[in-house]
Amino acid sequence: MITIRITGKEATLFEKTGEDELYGVYKEEYKEGESIEVEFSNEGLYWISLDTSLYPALLWCKGEYKLPIPFGDAKLPYPPQSFSGSIHLIQIRKAKDEERLNYRNLALNPFDWHGNNALYPHSWANVETRGESVFASRNAIDGFIASDMHGVFPWSSWGINRNPDAEITIDFGRPVDIDKVVFYNRADFPHDAWWTEATVKFSDGEERIAGFEKKDGAQPALCVNKKGITSLTVSKLIKADDPSPFPALVQLEAWGKESE
């Protein structure tokens, strides 16, 4: 069973329930204090689309998800047209059996945020620059790769606040198989510096070094053969010898498929 709700501060404004496939059309403008809520009675893989301006994603879903509609500073990492207007389409569908083993970027989740504990992957970091939404860890898994500037959409990133001990973790929420990790580092030169390498630690304890170049676009892939891992952590970010103190991560991809 799947349930979609739009909730206000004191009341449920819209609710619809279905089995393996469900859509909801909400014909009102969102207001501050309202939220999109989705409840899953069965844990598993679902196609999720909560706003038509964001990428739909195949996510591992369990329990109850709640996304406060972003306004103000919270809206800055999202497309300007997102969550706006007077008609909103939400679509959710349980993955078909043949889709379970699709090869894809397992780190993609445009609907992640700090309070997410139901849609996986989920990210978190030990530091985010000034606590601003445009530098939050979620920006590194939202699917947008623009990296030649910094700031609001589409140039949001994970910012480390000049902290050499910065770390970011991606929790997949279940076992997955991964064969490569790809980084998009921010490339707003000369404002930005860059990293020469980073350490990727997998949930099985193995650590691998990813080497980086000064460039805009995908870094050379870190090829691995990981079976049944549940998370990875990126740390030990080594900054290049550059006057700028501002390296940042635009996107992290983990390519693979569900563990059989």
Task: Describe the overall structure.
With 260 residues, the chain is mainly beta. The chain has no helices and 15 strands. Strands 7, 9, 10, 11, 12, 13, 14 and 15 form an eight-stranded antiparallel β-sheet that branches. Strands 1, 2, 3, 4, 5, 6 and 8 form a seven-stranded antiparallel β-sheet that branches. Strand 4 and strand 5 form a beta hairpin. The radius of gyration is 18 Å and the shape is globular. 37% of the residues are buried. The model has no long low-confidence stretch (mean pLDDT 97).
The overall strand count is 15
Q: How are helices and strands ordered from N to C?
A: EEEEEEEEEEEEEEE
- As a percent range, the share of helical residues equals under 10%
The overall average pLDDT, rounded, is 97
**What class would the helix/strand composition place it in?**
mainly beta
- Separation of termini? 24 Å
Shape: globular
Largest sheet composition: 8 strands, antiparallel
Strand content: over 45%
Radius of gyration, rounded?
A: 18 Å
> What is the helix tally?
0
Unreliable spans: none
Summary keywords:
seven-stranded antiparallel beta sheet, 260 residues, mainly beta
